[in-house]
């Protein structure tokens, strides 16, 4: 049962199994274990970014394709739902139409980019994705009639997902059973299913062809696999998952703007998640996403504690000033990449 | 049947293969010999599609395949073992062969089934590994094999493709003496089936004499001799081609 669910790709390391279990259970119980709006927001963001990073790893780690357009597909998914909910009212039909439209546009765009440029060498393909993604981000902020420009779109979610929707008068373990909680579990369950589907894809006959292309494209072609076909298919699948992650993001945050779904910072975050977690392992993307989202949200708080603890000591309080959080994050990542060149999962599995 | 008609490729002004017309019948093994730089491997590249021809045609059973790429030709029945070992280094030995089996028998665009659920693919791959005496190393990474075993894996991949045309490019190069018979036995076994076309590029003349039905001599990209082994090996033209200075 578990083997089938994980597509025979077992963690193969006790520590990795423990970490994954902690993530799955921790996120499932997050509303009760860590009550509060901020922590719930962080938990939902983790779910979305696990999908986003894992789908990026399908490109980078499994297929050896370097793309900088992954955020663009995330944005397409998010704007699909956002525009539909803004224009068509806040029903589930609008959610469905927005999701399907986003998904279809993402897949179509990925196919066009792939067929035209995946024949090129890695670096040129990367440059083209960068150009297309930049153009798209500019377009999204310029077409303000449709996208709301720099301000983005604020929209109402279906009634059942709103905080004002209450399912019970009495709270459960101190948590109000409202639409917001339902929304979180929607994000959680869809993300979990998406990650399991991705795990299946990378362990399918198709997935093994992708790995072969990454290892030796010349030989893969020689035994009968056309590189451009498989690479384009991989790009389309990754784009589809990114678009679904974007749709989830929109359904969670009820607002979409270029900063939160299209900015290049997100692209760098995803890249870090995959590299830190371990390229070529879906599990690594999950662990990377958890670590990065948590440190982005809580490192400042941690530094504030250290800053207060060292009050009166020379130099140290400045060093641990909450404003220096990016510095510490950077140092942590450099150490991480230096000591775990194959990522955290690669390190755990090699023991 | 495999045919090349006036096949040529030019690099700049230089013709690496220069108008080679030749037919290869099923059930025969043809050795292609010639000094280094004669164009043997380049000719192979033109036939199996790694290289696009400047002129001429490649025909398989009468169908023109000249415009097709290597992947399409492989699926039509061209099978190539490379001179320089050319594997998927970080994948397991079994996976290397399974990928080739999958081209013939699998559903490579199948996204949602597990690799391990296709037991018949794995069994076929294992059988090919056993035939080159690599069954015990199935789970090792290809890169971890010693050179001789990598050459055997290269042959196992070729077998797994079940091609109509087998193309061996110096299959025993760099192998130790005691490993050579395994490869020669495999080639002899393919030949005994009687319906496959085998092309062999080989420098070891005793191997060539032992296996060949026919020898084709290339020199400076041109076909300079073609005939039964006994005749060709004795002929002056081969001696001149190998010893140099020939302007055939």
Describe the secondary structure blueprint for this structure.
The complex is a heterodimer of chains A (351) and B (248).
Chain A (H helix, E strand, L loop, with lengths): L1 H4 L8 H15 L1 H4 L3 H27 L6 H19 L3 H26 L4 H21 L1 H4 L5 E2 L24 H24 L2 H11 L1 H7 L3 H27 L1 E2 L1 H4 L2 H14 L4 H28 L6 H4 L5 H15 L3 H8 L1
Antiparallel strand pairs in A: 1-2
Chain B lengths: L1 E10 L2 E11 L4 E5 L6 H9 L6 E6 L2 E2 L5 H7 L1 E4 L11 H13 L13 H13 L15 H14 L4 E5 L10 H13 L4 E5 L3 H7 L2 E6 L2 E6 L1 H6 L1 H8 L5
Helix pairs in contact in B: 3-4, 3-5, 4-5
Quickly describe the structure.
The complex is a heterodimer of chains A (351) and B (248). By secondary structure, chain A is an all-alpha fold.
- Domain count of chain B: 2
Number of strands of chain A: 2
Helix content of chain A: over 70%
CATH superfamily of the largest domain in chain B: P-loop containing nucleotide triphosphate hydrolases
Give the averaged pLDDT of chain B, no decimals. 89
Quaternary structure classification: heterodimer
SSE series of chain A: HHHHHHHHEHHHHEHHHHHH
Q: Looking across the biggest beta sheet of chain A, what order are the strands in?
A: 1-2
Strand order of the largest sheet of chain B: 6-7-8-3-9-10
Q: Biggest β-sheet of chain A: count, sense, barrel?
A: 2 strands, antiparallel
Rg calc of chain A: 21 Å
Shape of chain B: globular
Secondary-structure element series of chain B: EEEHEEHEHHHEHEHEEHH
């Amino acid at each position: 049962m578990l083997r089938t669910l994980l597509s025979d790709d077992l963690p193969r390391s006790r520590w990795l199994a423990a970490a994954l279990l902690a993530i799955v259970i921790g996120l499932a119980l997050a509303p009760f274990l860590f009550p509060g709006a901020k922590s719930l927001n962080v938990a939902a963001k983790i779910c979305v970014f696990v999908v986003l990073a894992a789908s990026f790893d399908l490109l980078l780690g499994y297929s050896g394709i370097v793309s900088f357009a992954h955020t663009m597909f995330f944005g397409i998914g998010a704007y699909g739902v956002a525009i539909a909910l803004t224009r068509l009212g806040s029903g589930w039909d609008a959610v469905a139409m927005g999701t399907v439209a986003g998904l279809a546009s993402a897949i179509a765009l990925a196919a066009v980019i792939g067929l035209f440029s995946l024949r090129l060498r890695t670096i040129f393909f990367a440059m083209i994705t960068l150009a297309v993604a930049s153009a798209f981000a500019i377009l999204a902020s310029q077409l303000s009639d449709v996208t709301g420009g720099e301000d983005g779109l604020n929209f109402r979610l279906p009634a059942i997902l709103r905080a004002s929707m209450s399912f019970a008068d009495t709270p459960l373990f101190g948590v109000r059973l409202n639409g917001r909680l339902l929304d979180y579990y929607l994000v959680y369950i869809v993300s979990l299913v998406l990650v399991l589907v991705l795990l299946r894809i990378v362990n399918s006959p198709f997935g093994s062809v992708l790995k072969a292309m990454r290892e030796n494209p010349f030989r893969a072609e020689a035994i009968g696999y056309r590189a451009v076909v498989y690479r384009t298919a991989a790009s389309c699948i990754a784009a589809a998952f990114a678009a679904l992650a974007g749709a989830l993001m929109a359904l969670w945050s009820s607002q979409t703007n270029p900063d939160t779904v299209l900015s290049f910072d997100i692209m760098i975050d995803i890249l870090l998640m995959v590299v830190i977690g371990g390229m070529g392992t879906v599990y690594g993307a999950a662990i990377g996403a958890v670590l990065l989202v948590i440190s982005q949200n809580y490192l400042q708080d941690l530094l504030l504690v250290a800053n207060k603890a060292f009050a009166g000591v020379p130099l140290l309080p400045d060093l641990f000033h909450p404003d220096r959080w990016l510095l510490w994050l950077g140092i942590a990542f450099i150490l991480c990449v230096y000591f775990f060149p194959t990522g955290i999962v690669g390190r755990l599995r090699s023991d | 049947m495999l045919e090349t008609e006036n096949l040529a490729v030019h690099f700049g002004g230089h013709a690496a293969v220069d108008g080679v017309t030749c037919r290869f019948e099923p059930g025969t093994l043809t050795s292609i010999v010639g000094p280094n730089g004669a164009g043997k491997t380049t000719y192979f590249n033109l036939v199996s599609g790694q290289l696009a021809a400047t002129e001429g045609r490649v025909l398989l059973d009468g169908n023109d395949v000249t415009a097709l790429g290597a992947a399409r030709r492989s699926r039509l029945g061209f099978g190539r073992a490379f001179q320089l070992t050319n594997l998927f280094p970080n994948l397991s030995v079994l996976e290397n062969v399974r990928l080739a089996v999958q081209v013939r028998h699998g559903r490579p665009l199948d996204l949602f089934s597990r690799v391990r659920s296709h037991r018949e693919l794995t069994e076929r791959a294992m059988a090919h590994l056993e035939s080159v005496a690599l069954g015990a190393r199935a789970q090792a990474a290809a890169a971890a094999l010693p050179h001789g075993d990598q050459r055997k894996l290269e042959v196992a991949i070729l077998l797994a493709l079940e091609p109509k045309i087998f193309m061996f490019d110096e299959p025993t190069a760099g192998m130790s003496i005691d490993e050579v018979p395994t490869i020669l036995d495999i080639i002899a076994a393919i030949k005994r089936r009687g319906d496959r076309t085998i092309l062999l590029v080989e420098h070891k003349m005793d191997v060539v004499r032992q296996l060949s039905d026919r020898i084709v001599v290339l020199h400076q990209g041109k076909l300079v001799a073609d005939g039964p082994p006994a005749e060709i090996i004795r002929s002056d033209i081969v001696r001149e081609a190998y010893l140099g200075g020939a302007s055939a």
